[in-house]
């Protein structure tokens, strides 16, 4: 069946002289909860922690040791990172990170094939944006940015540049491109994987990562 | 001001004392209270059951009966909602009646709302309780005030020991004919409500709705629960010394 | 009136099942509190609700236009759109996609629309064994049960039943610990995800402007379902479309809060076309199945606003009827207040007249609805459409009652008659009412009306008294 035939069950009946509701123009003034005049890092950290993520606030100098510390505390040895440049994790910083982790005795792979992802102890990704209101990190698909990287390993470490934090959920959707630049897959991630299906008891890590660490790096400008 | 009392069929039959209390409190507030004797039922049982032409017949009748009065006051939030919300809907296709329905809707008040909105009278300041008290918020009062409004009103009563039930706005399971057609569900809902009221530890329940009171008191009696249900008008009349406390 | 419908029989069984009633009470009351706390975080949630209602209503009022745009956008991004005028067509389309490509290992994320069309049975009929991967749905599937809540499918099950099903079907050690049970399911489903080739999901919102599918989940199985397999099929009712990307936050801020009190679901996934050429992973094919299946009939009639529903489940949680009978008693995929509307509207000949009648019209559902569907009012309107289907005895009783209410004289006689008919148990109460009042006195007593009605007191005393002050 084609579109016009399919729609004929609507268009034939038309709705008659029914009054039609206009599309509201100003959504933002009612919907916005957080504006730019707050401590964005503080709001972001509080929201993310409330959603069950663990947030580490670091400076440009100690972000590498912070990540190594997180992974070391978990006894994680097999680590996946992304080859792509995403947000704060530029090619140079990714290389620096891999080197630092290898020096700490970990195995680091930038390959995000199934064998790596399904056997990794943790993955580290950059993010496209972070949202203060909800404590959300955003991962977009792309070349070398696998959908599975923030999803399959049991631990996800998201690295956020402090400048990437935007105030409100509406800010993210406002800036999303509509054309071909819109990524095929975007994930707004708010806390670790959760379920409460069994008697309402909260359990994390049912399918996605059971632990989400967010490392916020405030670099000196 | 002239106020016509719409006592409702339930109060007329089962709790005339509520009507009497309304009359005495309104007179105390300086109202000239009338009782149009031809009144019966607002038609809500028919309306809720989907018998809308039958409900419209009663709506037209009620509109004609109350047309001459300045205000209409009823002790029932549910019947007030019927008049204010559903009469204009029911008669939407009959322009003359629709206008008359709008006029009646505009001047019809649920008792507590009337006291709060029209004359200068502080309900809370004039109430007294000599025991712990809780309340049942009638669902259909939503049109007029929230459960939190009722809670606030009662909490301002001097010296009150107010026990707020949880959830604060739980339905009692009455629902008119629903209570008969689906007695099992209705009975289970009533059980939940009695449980939540009992848990407050208060023996006196303010219940401003005849149908809910009939349902809850009947359930409490069946279960041997010692809850007593009183309309706020009765409490006011007693506090003001306009009526003897009931045994 | 006494005619016992299948619905009433199910209700009787449900009310008597104390274990389920208790489980549903605990779960729903907790969710009501979580919802209220979640809404209180918002600066002005009433205003956001109004906007959400308006955006959805607008989309419905211009539905053909937005569907055209949506389809054009998906196709422009390399996705395929299929049109299913009814459930049978939707089932056939999805089975054909699977069989024509030789896809065998099917995973599903939770989708009420797929429940609505009994998709799993259809897939099984062509030799496939779809695996439900949402934890609740997975347990429903292995225990050969059906969901009883649109968000929390196993709200009616306790941990013992779940433990037994897992032990029986997966051969694992018996444990009642929710974390251990969850991890057993994780390990089992992980292998299935690793090797699947077809993923079937529902859709929460379809953005017309960009052809984007928005899927809101907490567990991550939804993400795995739409990113692991070679082919992703999304089944979507035509009412799920919204105009623009920037309309999404209005709904996202309400959906999870209404469901569970969370500000957002853990994963909000936006899918715009299949995997791009250079993408590291993702499905090569994206198929969107747009389904009507009775929706255009609802759309064309007076119940259009029902289609605003975003399936958050808030009305179920808020409903004291649902709390006492659970989801299965409704005998339909969509239970609770919204189900009491949707079920008879989607299946007008299905004999569901009793569903909209089984409500006290308390209005808790309408207050909870994030898109402001006036559920109590619509329930009454549905009752009005079907009032002729009441048994003759009831219709006659209604006429007699009306006749009595039109005459103050007959009304007064009726009051006396009632007094005469009620048997006083000795303390002013009747425990066994006559005729239709027998049902009243099933769970409760009825007071014997006082000798003097209000009108009698008025006439004798009140009308003559002077004003007192």
In brief, what are we looking at here?
The complex is a heterotrimer of chains A (221), B (247) and C (469). Chain A has 221 residues and is an alpha/beta fold. Helix content of chain A is 28%, strand content 24%.
Give an account of the 3D structure.
The complex is a heterotrimer of chains A (221), B (247) and C (469). By secondary structure, chain A is α/β, with parallel strands linked by helices. Helices cover 28% and strands 24% of the residues of chain A. Chain A has one domain: Rossmann fold. A 6-stranded parallel beta sheet of chain A has the order 1-12-7-4-2-3, sandwiched between helices. Chain A has a 4-stranded mixed beta sheet with strand order 8-5-6-9, with helices on both faces. In chain A, β2 (78-81), α5 and β3 (107-109) form a beta-alpha-beta unit. Chain A starts with a helix and ends with a strand. The model of chain A has no long low-confidence stretch (mean pLDDT 95). With 247 residues, chain B is of the alpha/beta class. Chain B has 2 domains: 2-117, no CATH class; 124-239, Rossmann fold (3-Layer(aba) Sandwich), CATH 3.40.50. Chain B is 50% helix and 10% strand. Chain B has helices at 9-14, 16-28, 44-48, 52-66, 77-90, 95-107, 111-117, 147-155, 178-181, 183-198, 210-223, 232-239; strands spanning 2-5, 32-34, 71-74, 108-110, 133-136, 204-207, 228-230. In chain B, β6 (204-207), α11 and β7 form a beta-alpha-beta unit. In chain B, α4 crosses α6, α5 (77-90) runs antiparallel to α6 and α10 (183-198) crosses α11 (210-223). Chain C is α/β, with parallel strands linked by helices and 469 residues long. Chain C has 2 domains: 10-296, NagB/RpiA/CoA transferase-like (Rossmann fold, 3-Layer(aba) Sandwich), CATH 3.40.50; 392-462, no CATH class. Chain C contains 23 helices and 12 strands. Chain C has helices spanning 6-16, 18-40, 45-61, 63-76, 87-100, 112-116, 119-125, 135-142, 159-170, 178-195, 221-227, 248-259, 295-300, 314-318, 320-325, 336-346, 354-357, 364-368, 375-385, 392-405, 408-421, 437-440, 454-462, and strands at residues 80-84, 106-108, 131-132, 198-201, 205-207, 212-217, 231-237, 241-242, 267-271, 285-291, 429-430, 446-447. In chain C, the strands form 3 sheets. Chain C has a 6-stranded parallel beta sheet, with helices on both faces. A 4-stranded mixed beta sheet of chain C has the order 8-5-6-9. In chain C, β5 and β6 (212-217) form a beta hairpin. In chain C, α3 (45-61) crosses α12 and α9 crosses α10 (178-195). The longest helix of chain C is centred in the N-terminal third of the chain and has 23 residues, at 18-40. Chain C is elongated, with a radius of gyration of 26 Å. The two termini of chain C are 50 Å apart. Chains A and C meet through α1, α7, β9 and β10 of A and α2, α3, α4, β1 and α8 of C. β9 (185-189) of chain A pairs antiparallel with β9 (267-271) of chain C, so a sheet runs across the interface.
């Amino acid at each position: 069946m084609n579109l016009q035939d399919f729609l004929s069950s609507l268009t034939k009946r038309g709705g008659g002289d029914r009054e039609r509701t206009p599309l509201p123009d100003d959504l933002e003034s009612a919907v916005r909860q957080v504006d730019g005049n707050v401590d964005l890092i503080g709001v972001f950290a509080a929201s993310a922690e409330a959603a069950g993520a663990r947030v580490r606030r670091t400076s440009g100098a100690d972000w590498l040791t912070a990540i190594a510390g997180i992974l070391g505390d978990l006894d994680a040895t097999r680590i996946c990172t992304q080859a792509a440049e995403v947000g704060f994790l530029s090619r140079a910083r990714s290389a620096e990170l891999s080197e630092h982790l290898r020096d700490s005795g970990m195995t680091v792979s930038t390959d995000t094939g199934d064998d790596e992802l399904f056997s990794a102890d943790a993955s580290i990704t950059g993010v496209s944006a972070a949202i203060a209101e909800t404590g959300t990190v955003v991962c977009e698909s792309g070349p070398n940015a696998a959908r599975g990287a923030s999803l399959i390993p049991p631990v996800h470490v998201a690295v956020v540049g402090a400048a990437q934090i935007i105030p409100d959920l509406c800010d993210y959707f406002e800036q999303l491109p509509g054309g071909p630049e819109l990524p095929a897959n975007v994930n707004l991630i708010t806390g670790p994987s959760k379920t409460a299906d069994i008697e309402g008891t909260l359990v994390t890590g049912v399918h996605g990562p059971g632990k989400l660490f967010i490392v916020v790096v405030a670099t000196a400008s | 001001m002239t106020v016509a009392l719409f006592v409702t069929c339930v109060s007329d039959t089962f709790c005339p004392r509520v009507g009497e209390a309304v009359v005495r409190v309104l007179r105390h507030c300086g109202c000239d209270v009338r009782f149009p004797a031809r009144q019966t039922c607002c038609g809500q049982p028919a309306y809720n059951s989907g018998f809308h032409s039958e409900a419209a017949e009663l709506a037209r009748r009620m509109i004609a009966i109350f047309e001459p009065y300045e205000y209409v006051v009823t002790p029932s939030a549910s019947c007030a909602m019927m008049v204010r919300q559903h009469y204009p809907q029911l008669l939407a296709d009959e322009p003359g009646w629709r206008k008359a329905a709008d006029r009646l809707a505009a001047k019809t008040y649920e008792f507590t709302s009337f006291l709060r909105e029209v004359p200068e009278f502080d309900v809370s300041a004039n109430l007294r309780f000599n025991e712990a008290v809780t309340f049942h918020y009638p669902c259909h009062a939503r049109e007029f005030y929230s459960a939190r409004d009722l809670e606030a009103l009662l909490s301002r009563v001097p010296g009150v020991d107010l026990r707020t039930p949880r959830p604060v706005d739980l339905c009692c399971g009455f629902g008119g004919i629903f209570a008969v057609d689906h007695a099992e569900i209705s009975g289970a809902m009533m059980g939940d409500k009695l449980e939540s009221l009992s848990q407050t530890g208060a023996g006196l329940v303010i219940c401003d709705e005849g149908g809910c009171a009939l349902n809850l008191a009947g359930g409490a009696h069946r279960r041997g629960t010692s809850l007593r249900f009183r309309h706020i008008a009765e409490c006011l009349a007693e506090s003001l010394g306009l009526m003897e406390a009931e045994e | 009136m006494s005619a016992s419908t299948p619905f009433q029989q199910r209700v009787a069984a449900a009310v008597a099942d104390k274990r389920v009633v208790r489980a549903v009470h605990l779960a729903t009351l907790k969710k009501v509190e979580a919802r209220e706390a979640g809404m209180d975080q918002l600066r002005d949630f009433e205003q956001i609700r109004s906007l959400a209602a308006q955006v959805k209503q607008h989309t419905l009022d211009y539905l053909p236009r937005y569907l055209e745009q949506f389809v054009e956008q998906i196709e422009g991004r390399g996705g395929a759109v299929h049109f299913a005028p009814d459930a049978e067509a939707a089932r056939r389309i999805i089975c054909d996609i699977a069989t024509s490509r030789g896809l065998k290992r099917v995973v599903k994320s939770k989708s009420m629309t797929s429940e609505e069309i009994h998709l799993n049975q259809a897939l099984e009929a062509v030799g496939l064994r779809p695996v439900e991967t949402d934890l609740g749905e997975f347990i429903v599937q292995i225990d050969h049960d059906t969901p009883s809540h649109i968000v929390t499918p196993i709200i009616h099950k306790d941990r013992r039943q779940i433990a037994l099903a897992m032990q029986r079907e997966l051969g694992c050690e018996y444990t009642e610990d929710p974390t251990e049970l969850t991890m057993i399911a994780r390990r089992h489903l992980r292998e299935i995800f690793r090797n699947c080739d077809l993923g079937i999901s529902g859709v929460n919102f379809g953005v017309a402007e960009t052809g984007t599918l928005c899927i809101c989940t907490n567990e991550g199985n939804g993400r795995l379902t739409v990113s692991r397999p070679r082919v992703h099929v999304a089944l979507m009712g035509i009412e799920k479309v919204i105009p623009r990307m920037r309309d999404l936050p209005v709904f996202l801020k309400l959906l999870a809060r209404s469901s569970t009190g969370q500000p957002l679901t853990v994963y909000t996934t936006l899918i715009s076309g299949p995997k791009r050429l250079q993408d590291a992973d993702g499905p090569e094919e994206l198929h969107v199945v747009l389904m009507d299946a009775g929706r255009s009939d609802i759309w064309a009639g007076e119940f259009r606003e029902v289609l605003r529903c975003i399936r958050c489940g808030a009305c179920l949680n808020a409903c004291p009827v649902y709390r006492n009978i659970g989801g299965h008693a409704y005998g339909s995929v969509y239970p609770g207040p919204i189900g009491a509307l949707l079920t008879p509207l989607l299946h007008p000949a299905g004999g569901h007249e009793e569903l909209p009648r089984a409500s006290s019209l308390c209005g808790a559902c309408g207050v909870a609805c994030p898109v402001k569907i006036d559920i109590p009012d619509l329930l009454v309107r549905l009752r009005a459409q079907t009032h002729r289907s009441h048994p003759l005895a009831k219709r006659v009783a209604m006429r007699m009652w009306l006749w009595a209410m039109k005459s103050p004289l007959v009304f007064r006689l009726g009051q006396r008659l009632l007094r005469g008919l009620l048997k006083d148990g000795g303390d002013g109460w009747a425990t066994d009412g006559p005729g239709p009042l027998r049902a009243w006195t099933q769970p409760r007593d009825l007071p014997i009306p006082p000798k003097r009605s209000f009108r009698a007191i008025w006439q004798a005393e009140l009308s003559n008294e002077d004003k007192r002050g």
